[in-house]
Specification:
Shape: globular
Distance between the termini: 26 Å
Order of helices and strands: HEHEEHEEHEHH
Strand order of the largest sheet: 2-1-5-6
Structural class: alpha/beta
Strand content: 15-25%
Helix content: 25-40%
Bound molecules: S-adenosylmethionine
Largest sheet: 4 strands, parallel
Length: 200
């Protein structure tokens, strides 16, 4: 079981926004997909707290999928499925056999910042296909807003990410908004995380 302190810190904020978003649908059985599940800490927490959602965790790394599996085993959650290999930058037809219009909610936590723009393009394009009508895509992390990054710690994070990989870095909300629009979605809202400088 891998442990990410950042994942630990962001859990409560993520959970409260997800619960609020999905509250009025808790009488239905929902299906959720997580891209880049990483350690698996988030998905098991969501599964524990929102048993009306069946979660499909995924990651491109085998090490991550092993950790997700270990968290599911240790917590014995019944509503988190076996993690799958899914590369969000690939066309949705290659996404582990997930059918069109199959997801009520899709989440990507700290994925867009740590991957090239082609991943953001894949996430939005594919989500436009595999989300049900009125389904939701929620991305989380620090962003640029109209080309500006604040506060200074996020500027530093952006520089560090670009040093790690010139194709990584904080995506611009405005670019993501356009990406959503060109794939049949619209930006519903932005929520600031009270505990950090990140947003949902
Ligand atoms: C910074 S980590 C975030 C992990 C987790 N969501 C969290 O917040 O703790 C980014 C994760 O995305 C995965 N990833 C990177 N590129 C990806 C891609 N194209 N498709 C799916 N997952 C990807 C990485 O393997 C890694 O586990």
């Amino acid at each position: 079981m891998l442990l990410s302190p950042a994942a630990e810190r962001s859990q409560d904020g993520l959970l409260s926004v997800l619960c609020e978003i999905l509250e009025n649908q808790s009488h239905r059985e929902l299906f959720g997909l997580e891209f880049g599940s990483g350690t698996g800490q988030h998905v098991v927490r969501f599964a524990q707290e929102m048993p009306f959602v069946t979660w499909q965790p995924s990651d491109i790394k085998e090490e991550s999928r092993n950790s997700i599996r270990a968290y599911i085993g240790a917590t014995k959650v019944k509503t988190a499925l076996e993690p799958v290999h899914l590369d969000a930058s690939e066309p949705w037809e290659k996404w582990a056999g997930l059918p069109q219009s199959s997801c009520d909610i899709i989440i990507a936590i700290n994925l867009l910042q740590y991957s090239p723009f082609s991943t953001a393009q894949g996430v939005f394009k594919g989500s436009g296909h595999i989300l049900k009508q009125n389904g939701l895509l929620m991305t989380y992390g620090p962003y640029a807003i109209n080309g500006t990054i604040t506060p200074v710690c996020n500027e530093h994070l952006d520089q560090t990410l670009r040093q790690m990989n010139p194709e990584w870095g904080l995506p611009d909300i405005d670019v993501l908004r356009q990406l959503a629009f060109s794939n049949g979605m619209r930006m519903e809202r932005m929520v600031r995380d009270a505990q950090s400088h990140d947003a949902f």
